[in-house]
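Interim report, section 4.2 (structural modelling).
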Amino acid sequence: MSEQPILNNTPVENPEPEIRLDDEKRVRVLSPGLLIWRRFVRNKLAIAGLIILASMFIFSFIGGLISPYKQQQVFRKTDTAMREYASAMINEDLRYIVKDGEKFSNIAAANFVLAKNNKRTTFDYAGTHYSFKAGAEDFYEIYSLTEIGSVLMLGKKPNFDLNEGETLTAEEETAIAEAVKTKTAAFELDGKQFVLRRDGKNNIISVTKPIAIGTTLIFDASDREGVPIVNNYEFIRGAGLAILENESDFTCGGQTYAIVETDDKTTVYRSGSEDEPFATISNLMIRATSPDVFLSTDFKNAFLDAAANGQRAFSLENADGEPVEYTITRTHNTYTIRTASLTELINMYAPPSRSHILGTDSNGMDILTRLMYGGRVSLVVGFVVVFIELIIGVIVGGISGYFGGIVDMLIMRFIDIFNAIPFYPIVFILGAIMDTMQIAPMQRIFILMIVIGLNGWTSIARIVRGQILSLREQDFMLATRATGIRTMRQIFVHLVPNVMPLLIVQATLSLGSIIIIEATLSYLGIGIKYPYASWGSIINAATNLHVMTNYWYMWFPAGILIFLTVLGFNFVGDGLRDAFDPKMK
Amino acid sequence: MSKYLLRRFLFAAIILIFGSLIIYTVIRCLPTSFIETTARQRSSMPGAKSYAEILEELNKLYARDTSILDGFFKWFKNAMQGNWGTSWVFTKPVVEKFREVIWYSIFLNIVTLFVQTFVSIPLGITAARNQYGKTDYFVTVFSLACISLPTFFLATVLKFIFAIKLDWFDLYGAVGRFHMQLDAWGKFLDLAHHMVLPVVTLSMLSIGGMMRFTRTNMLEVLNADYIRTARAKGLPEDIVIRKHAFRNTLIPLVTYMAYLIPNMFAGSLITETLFQIPGIGFVAYTAVTQGDIPFAMFYSFLTIALTQVSLLIADFMYAAVDPRVRIN
Amino acid sequence: MAFWNKKQNGKKSLDPNYISAADSARIARENRKITTAYEKKRSRKNVPESEYLTKMRDPKNVVEFDDVHTYFYTDIGTVHAVDGVTFDIPASSTVGVVGESGCGKSVTALSLMQLVQRPQGQTVKGEIRVNLGDKAYDIVRTPTEAMTHIRGNEVSMIFQEPMTSLNPVFRVGAQIDEVIRMHNPEMNPDQVKARTLEMINLVGIANQEGVYGMYPHQLSGGMRQRIMIAIALACNPKVVIADEPTTALDVTIQAQILDLFRSLKSRINASIILITHDLGVVAEMADYVVVMYSSRIVEKGTAREIFHDPRHPYTIGLMKSKPILNKKVDKLYSIPGSVPSPIDMPNYCYFRDRCDKRFGRCNGAYPPQIQISDTHFVSCYQYAPENEK
Amino acid sequence: MNQQPLLEVKNLKKYYPLRSGFLNRVTGYVKAVDGISFSIPQGKTMGLVGESGCGKTTAGKTILRLEEKTDGAVLFEGREVYDIGKEEMRRLRPKLQIIFQDPYSSLSPRLPVGEIIGEAAREHKIVPSDEYDDYVTKIMLDCGLQEYHKLRYPHEFSGGQRQRICIARALALNPKFVVCDEPVSALDVSIQAQIINLLEELQSKFDLAYLFISHDLSVVQHISDAVGVMYLGSMVEYAPKDEIFAHPLHPYTEALFSAIPVPDPDYAMNRIILEGSIPSPANPPSGCKFHTRCAKAMPQCKEITPEMTEAAPGHFVSCHLFRA
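Predicted structure of the assembly:
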């Protein structure tokens, strides 16, 4: 038949076709990889899962690198707070203003107070004699005495015995003699003070030299320039003496000052500028809390007015003309003046902003950065635990499945018993122990990984065993035995690659549940502890009702991240299972 | 059958004994310093026994002076006679505390089981019926989302939305403040009202798994030859699904549900804690985190027992729905 | 984009037997489009009867397949599982459909039942006319609701696997009851049960009452297949499709079932479509034989014509390649090559490349059906008049 | 049979224990193979027929020591296979090969075909390593495969080609004896013929001995030199091919032969229909296992297990009808 002539209407050019109909090259098929890939991508969720997971990995592992902040970087902020601005008290303590070049020690001052209280006018300290002039209650001028000689009254005639180098004028001698006679202890002559002291029959003559002022009065300059002048010994002495002597002015350093006394305070004006107070004198001490701050007279006046009226607050314009509010609190005779001022604080619970996209947490750390580092911990814990589970599961399940029989029976019963043990109570107890023992946070993570891993390996072992048992029954495994292939090769070349797909699926799905377990433990405060963060421990903040209610951004993003990651693993695992499932078309 | 049952019971008993032996061993291995610290803390609580008493009771009940095996059997004997010791935290016998609180958990879990069953099985079946369709995608996403939700996060979000923002429910507790003043019906309503969020939480978490399980099994069943036979008989599609496919899906499903029971109690531990429902879970959590050894021991034993009981139930249910098993 | 394509092509050249990822994605996309369109059409509600009512070509036929095309839209391309099949089932006769696996014989039968695995599988062209006495339905266009009255009632089916074809959780009796009740709603439960018992008896089971209450797993394979036959015959169908009814059974059990079929043939008023790959079974049972190869009918005729006067080289080869008991041959005849994968079939005789009688004309288009006798048709150029295309 | 047969099976038994009860005690046995004996000379084919569950596959596996025997003897080249040590057995394995029924589960799914065929040959150093590649190619060509198939994976092949791969895998080891466990049952008719022809070709080329297990009598008749018929673990009849097909003695063999449908519509059938179904091998009937279905059953059949008797020269049958 084949010898028949070829008819015209049939193609003759190509009697033998290139490809036979039954040639397997004619119809292209899916390659093994593509087959799995096709099945995988048919499941859109698996793709979504892959994308989610990729983003999570980038977020956690690369995000931490590009984040401008460090994991444990604490942020501060400047904020207005009511801070102590100044304090005021009625001064009852003596202050001592010492003349330049003189010495007046604390012990001398104590002797002074003793003498004053004993109504004596002189006192000694360290071989030096002192005297003071008691003015009003609150102003004392303290002198040191220098002996110049002695005088012996022989009858009415004074007999001077002067120290070497000392001289007395005739007037002075007369005055001294007069004083001895009248038993005056001290007198002044031409601005020079003399003090007589009885020493037996002798009267020792001393001249005084003012060295210090002891006063409870407070001298406040009205402006910053006046401070050195006002705090000067000369000025204080001048002003004090003038007040004592009820004079209306005094001179100090070539400048004349006028003193105006009112009910509760005394104001000093510089001559020539009478409308501008130069200093105030009072027994009220107002001091700024910060040494940099100079309290103006206006402030003091405003305060005094307010204090006098029993007000709790007052307002005053500052140098820029803006009103500033001050509050007054009083304890005993001390007033504290507070005002809102800028200060630096830990930036807690900051709401989302440009610099902290998700705000800051209760430690003032950037939540977004914490989330990145927390993601690392969560993912790494997940992977390590899965690794532990796989190692134990594959070995135990493999032994059980491959050897079968009594070995299998024993292992499966052991797994049954192991599975019966409740996981959470054990972990809670363990957590309590770790808390009591104060285990280091890093060690905690390791212990946690081992515990979670021990919890999960049984399911892997079961799967591996089941798979190997069923593979073992397949003819191709029988064929490896029939062809005399070594046991190791049987296991690793023929058996293991066939278990792999299922293992990959199981590992992917396990990762999700492990992350949830870790997060749950961390949320309950048993897992990852500060300073390390995991997503679960970040949500732990929400256990605080206040935080949960008011600062959603502290816990919600972490929860969403856990949710998305686990969802991603589940999506991918599900897709892989479908892809690897030989039953699927 | 009775032989099989006997075997099953024996096996459950063995697991129970070995499981509790492990629990006992763990407790015995607790560092002494931990026990003493905790005991000391506990004894300083109001109403608690003295430190010496606590330690003495512990030594007696757990036979801490003997070897682990001896101690275990002593403990086991005590436990079987109902002597579980006194809880350190609650300062009353463990069993008494258990009786007080278990009803909350049972109520919570049974309601959840109902909700879950009636939501997930129909949804799972619907998904399987149009595989790769829109419904299937929705159901798959929903169920996987449920599986992926951490309990505490779901609970927190629910509380945030429904208790704080909308103020529909109380944040915590099983009953309201004025519970005692209500009549019986009011008390029940009050309890039910407080159970809404926990039930929703627990249901959401378990719906996912069950829905997946139903769907997978349904898909398998739908590919079976007898489904084709049923169609070839001219049965309308919904009878094919409702009768022929569903009965077969039920076989693995009842087993799954039986396994679910102990898991639900473990799961409700977290949920009860989050909502502070004073059920066994919350109480156990409180006790165990504070190192209450008698209660921890009791709770662990209870969980193992529950697991074994549920396995037995699973076997029964399996036999009930699968005629092939019934005969053997 | 062009660069990307180039890369794809480069990859393809590594192993030309594999579909590239891009192609595979394209195929998947197209398949989805096509199947969704068909599914949409199928899921319409309240289709008017006029759309699927038709007329028999010959009223003596119970079923007429007329140029039926059933395609499967798979990941590697469109599988033409049934590609233009035309044959008739005359009333009260047995038609054997023979062919090797994948030749489309089962899909032909499933198309008649509208049980092709959807949505991948769709009957895309042609008519399957079923004679319901007063009217005739075109199964291809019949909506699912109307199908439920035909399936199990007018057309019923027996499947290959008796072990899995019965629902394991229902009693055997209930499964027969069900189909009777379904199609005879007027019967009361007692009548239904009586009918069931009658059917169990009919298929040669003595212990009717006992079997009625049994579960399928308590029965052996042969018994289950008997039950399947009882289910199929319960409603007095016009056509019974037996899809490899004995393939899964042992030889001695197969003999029992064939014996049963033979005895039933005379007692029931149904036509049987017997699908099998076993020529012996067909020879024993069938009045007419349809030989299928690669989704098409290559030869059809009466059993005698086919077995005594086979014309198509495939039919001849098939018969020669099967060793026959007590018939000695030194070397079995074997058809070279293998059955082609039914994707992207070219337009020439599908058997050409395996045929030892091919000649020039075989390179032309697929051969038309050539009538040898009244009933005998063959698709082969050998028998075509030379002037005919 | 003067010359020593290549393989001799004597009263081989394989029982699977049935376990039940709490302690998994053995409560009974499934007597999958219950005392079968036969021998196969070099280059010849022994056919083993029987219905599913009759133990023919188990027999094949037990002979190859893929299952441990319960009793009896398997002598390969005069040596008891079960006495050989583990490592030596591994080295002996290439001589004894098997081809499975299911071409889908009998190939490692994750290995390329070239590796599947060649790995054992490499492992047993059948050829020097530099000839290895060519050797695999040669075997593949012998079995009707192409060289480019080497890198493909099993799932890309059709059933017939997979069976060729299985044959190539066995052949690559230079076997002397191959158990063909229903090698064509899962294949289409046209492919069956190809595989049968291939097996025959290879047999004559390499002087192989086959144990050809099948339920298809016509195939067995075509390929075998001697045929054994098995029923419920026991061999009921065993004779040279021509003898047994011409004069089947055992009622079961008769029924089996008559049950084969003949592809001829005019063939006058004289079929013996066996009633009932095959009993469970876990609980076989007493006496002659076939008596429950036997049309010629006698009272003694129920009580006494018939012995194997030589009814004609070389024709062994186990039936009370043919007691010597």
